[in-house]
């Protein structure tokens, strides 16, 4: 008998992603160096998933699981800077740049055995668009209609020229699922989603594990390679990695990175990222509608100290709303630098010249967030601001941010597509899905500039527009940028083929284990 092939994600105080192949042997490489099927790959993570609805879930742990099940038409390259055909094979653009005709890959099946057709593609994109600003639908705002030409061809009609369309189609939220949810309701479908990806949904025991099994109909012949297991406790991830009970530790503590690098049998690796930590100001709460208050706080933050204390030197200070790994990043964007004198000057010009008391929302149980908050607490006290630290569990924290129930909050962003529009529209446009990154920031000139940049198809002009956008948002200090950090993973030396793109995603169908 052949063993079931799959992925299991064990999540309690830990989450683990586990992959399997259809062999009873452990995964090995042959004498020629080619991988063979089999073996357990366990990726231990710190938090459970939240949901599998690709159109409305804003949680990286959930997204990384979705991406193994539901695939997009185009896929980001390994360096995160370009796109390659995936479920599509090619596309053409009309001379007026309003019509995209996309040829689909033939012979692709869903994990339920049914062929993927243009009707499935139309339905998938339309459903994401319909989520609007409540979900990821804002990313499709330029799409007018999606129509079926034939079973292997779709046509997308735009409302106006739109530079990032192909990048938008690479977003997980535009991943392809069966037409009409395969005859189910959306709620029923997303309890056990079906896609064309290398792995198939099996089960989710909340707080313990998510299990995915191998897709026997996967269109990339011979893939994936791997097996499964379960991880019980996040506090022991380092020990479990050293003992071989887990294969990969997703985001180990920065404090343990140096020791992991010198541990026999372990590879500790940092990957270039598009990740930025920042503080959001709730502009619906006084005094954060005052740009002088926001600027005062931004100038009071010593980002170099944060990099040393929180990242143990593994990062760089952030001075722009875009990260260096994001297209059109401008290193001269003018974000606030550490300057106590300027901080005091800005506060003196504000509506709170004598200081005030406020709070910063962080997630409980996260040592990095706690360190950032404690350092900021001390720094703001030096300019006359008393900052209390409000800790909520991750679920309650998310609910508070969605409800706007905070003064300031710690946040993190990493790109999902190789185009800045995803983040800039989310961050500066109140209709972009999050009330401007939960800040309620609303500058009509910035909103117009962002829309102009996204619609522009000339690369030189887009560069100029996004440069101006970065400078204007820095001037408004709508966020306090903190630092850019790489992704960090630790694995056993037997893990082969594991790569994380600057967008944070990884394609597990290429991973195998060697002895």
Beta-strand content estimate: 15-25%
Helix content: 25-40%
In the predicted model, the low-confidence regions spanning at least 5 consecutive residues are 1-14, 20-28, 228-234
Q: What is Rg?
A: 23 Å
- What structural class results from the helix and strand content? alpha+beta
- Determine the number of helices (DSSP H or I, runs of at least 4 residues): 15
- From the spread of the alpha carbons, the general shape counts as globular
| pLDDT averaged residue by residue | 89
The count of β-strands is 20
The main β sheet shows up as:
9 strands, mixed
Kindly report how far apart the N and C termini lie.
Answer: 23 Å
Written overview of the protein:
The protein is an alpha+beta fold. It is built from 15 helices and 20 strands. It has helices at 60-66, 118-130, 165-168, 186-189, 237-243, 257-261, 291-300, 303-310, 340-348, 367-381, 394-403, 421-428, 435-440, 444-455, 459-476; strands at 6-10, 15-19, 41-45, 74-76, 83-85, 88-93, 99-104, 143-150, 153-158, 199-205, 209-214, 248-250, 266-281, 316-317, 356-363, 385-392, 408-413, 479-492, 495-496, 512-513. Strands 2, 3, 12, 13, 14, 15, 16, 17 and 18 form a nine-stranded mixed sheet that branches. Strands 6-7-9-8 form a four-stranded antiparallel sheet, with helices on one face. β15 (356-363), α10 (367-381) and β16 form a beta-alpha-beta unit. α12 (421-428) packs antiparallel against α14 and α14 (444-455) packs antiparallel against α15. The radius of gyration is 23 Å and the shape is globular.
């Amino acid at each position: 008998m052949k063993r079931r092939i799959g992925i299991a994600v064990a999540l309690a105080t830990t989450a683990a992603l586990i992959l399997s192949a259809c062999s009873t042997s452990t995964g090995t490489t042959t004498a020629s160096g080619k991988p063979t099927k089999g073996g357990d790959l366990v990726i231990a993570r710190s938090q459970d998933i939240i949901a599998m609805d690709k159109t409305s879930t804003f949680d990286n742990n959930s997204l990384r699981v979705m991406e193994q099940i539901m695939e997009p038409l185009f896929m980001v390259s390994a360096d995160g800077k370009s796109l390659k055909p995936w479920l599509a094979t090619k596309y053409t653009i009309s001379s007026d740049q309003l019509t995209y005709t996309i040829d689909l890959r033939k012979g692709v099946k869903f994990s339920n055995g049914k062929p993927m057709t243009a009707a499935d593609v139309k339905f998938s994109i339309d459903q994401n668009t319909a989520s609007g600003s409540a979900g990821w639908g804002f990313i499709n705002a330029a799409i007018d209609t999606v129509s079926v030409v034939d079973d292997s061809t779709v046509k997308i009609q735009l409302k106006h020229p739109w530079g990032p369309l192909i990048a938008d189609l690479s977003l997980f939220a535009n991943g392809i699922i069966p037409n009409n949810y395969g005859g189910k309701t959306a709620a029923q479908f997303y309890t056990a989603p079906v896609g064309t990806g290398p792995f198939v949904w099996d089960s989710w025991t909340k707080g313990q594990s998510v299990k995915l099994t191998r897709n026997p109909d996967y269109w990339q012949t011979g893939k994936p390679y791997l097996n499964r297991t379960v991880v019980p406790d996040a506090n022991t991830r380092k020990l479990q990695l050293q003992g071989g009970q887990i294969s990969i530790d997703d985001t180990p503590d920065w404090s343990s990175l140096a020791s992991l690098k010198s541990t026999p049998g372990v590879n500790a690796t940092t990957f270039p990222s598009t990740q930025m930590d920042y503080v959001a100001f709730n502009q619906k709460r006084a005094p954060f509608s005052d740009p002088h208050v926001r600027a005062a706080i931004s100038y009071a933050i010593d980002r170099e100290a944060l990099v040393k204390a929180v990242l143990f030197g593994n990062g760089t200070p952030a001075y722009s709303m875009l990260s260096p790994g994001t297209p059109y990043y401008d290193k001269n964007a003018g974000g606030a630098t550490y300057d106590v004198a300027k901080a005091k000057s800005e506060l003196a010009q504000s509506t709170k010249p004598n200081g005030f008391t406020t709070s910063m929302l962080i997630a409980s149980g996260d040592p990095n967030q706690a360190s950032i908050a404690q350092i900021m607490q001390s720094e703001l006290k030096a300019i006359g601001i008393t900052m209390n630290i409000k800790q909520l569990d991750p679920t309650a924290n998310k609910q508070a941010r969605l409800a706007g129930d905070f003064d300031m909050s710690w946040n993190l962003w990493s790109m999902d597509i190789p185009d800045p529009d995803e983040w800039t529209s989310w961050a500066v446009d109140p209709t972009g899905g999050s009330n401007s990154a939960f800040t309620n920031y609303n500058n009509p000139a910035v909103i117009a500039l962002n829309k102009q940049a996204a619609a522009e198809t000339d690369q030189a002009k887009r560069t100029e527009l996004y440069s101006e956008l970065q400078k204007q948002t820095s001037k408004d200090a709508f966020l306090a940028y903190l630092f850019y950090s790489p992704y960090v993973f630790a694995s056993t030396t037997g893990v082969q083929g594991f790569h994380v793109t600057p967008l944070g995603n990884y394609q597990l169908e290429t991973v195998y284990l060697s002895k």
